[in-house]
Amino acid sequence: MTEPRVRPDPAFALLGLYESALPEVYGYLLARCGDRVLAEELTSETFLGAVAACRKSGAPPVNTGWLIGVARHKLADHWRRKAREERGLRLVHEPDAHDPWDTELDALRARQVLGSLGAHHRAVLTLRYVDGLPVGDVAACLGRTVNATEALLTRAKAAFRHSYEEKGGRDE
Predict the structure, then answer these.
(1) Confidence of residue 92 (pLDDT cuts 50, 70, 90)
(2) What span, in angstroms and rounded, lies between the C-alpha atoms of 106 and 34?
(3) 38 alpha-carbon distance from chain centroid
(4) How would residue 21 be classed by pLDDT, with cut points 50, 70 and 90?
(5) Region at 117 (left for phi over 0; alpha for psi -120 to 50; beta for the rest)
(6) Is the CA virtual torsion 127, 117, 169, 171 positive or negative?
(7) CB 164 within 8 A of CB 105
(8) Would you say residue 31 has pLDDT above 50?
(9) How far is it, in rounded angstroms, from Cα 94 to Cα 97?
(10) What percent of the chain has pLDDT over 90?
(11) Which of 111, 49, 112 is nearest to 78 (CA)?
């Protein structure tokens, strides 16, 4: 009589990677959202999502880069949820087509302004300019068409510019 073979849980591959990947995933999220509690929550969601994904047949090999990708999607999902909550509460002013703003940005003020924007604007600006994703990839992360993402990006840049210039001389 042969003993039944037990297949090891593929999620155990994450165990060896956890200690080295955790600070990188958390750091990635914290740098983009600026909120410790949110970054911790999204890091948890990232690893829980990775465990579930590992257990599916045909799962990709687990590495830190893949986990960062999962984290990017968790952050985009968070921003989408938050944008849905905020939608309808604000009217978005359509900016002029001409964009001659060639100003050097103060990093601290830029971070404060980015944090003060709505989730949908923060998401599109972060994915495009902080992560450096092309508009098509930003659209895919946000679940929007390329044209809708380009329009959102234009509005987000205008909102950022307006808020940045408004905070010009004020320290908050």
Answers:
(1) very low
(2) 16
(3) 11
(4) very high
(5) beta
(6) negative
(7) yes
(8) yes
(9) 9
(10) 37
(11) 49
Q: What is the DSSP string of the chain?
A: -PPPPPPPPTTHHHHHHHHHHHHHHHHHHHHHH--HHHHHHHHHHHHHHHHHHHTSTTPPPP-HHHHHHHHHHHHHHHHHHHHHHHTTS-PPPPPPS------PPPHHHHHHHHHHS-HHHHHHHIIIIIS---HHHHHHHHT--HHHHHHHHHHHHHHHHHHHHHTTT---
Q: Which two tokens stand for residue 97?
A: 């087509």
- Give me 130's structure tokens: 């902080």
Confidence bin at 56 (pLDDT 50/70/90) = confident
Report the largest interatomic distance among the alpha carbons of the chain, rounded to a whole angstrom: 82
Match 């601290």 to its residue by tokens. Answer: 108
3 vs 59: CA distance, rounded Å: 27
How many residues make up the chain in this entry? Answer: 172
Note the Cα 9 to chain centre separation in Å.
29
Quote the pLDDT of residue 100.
45
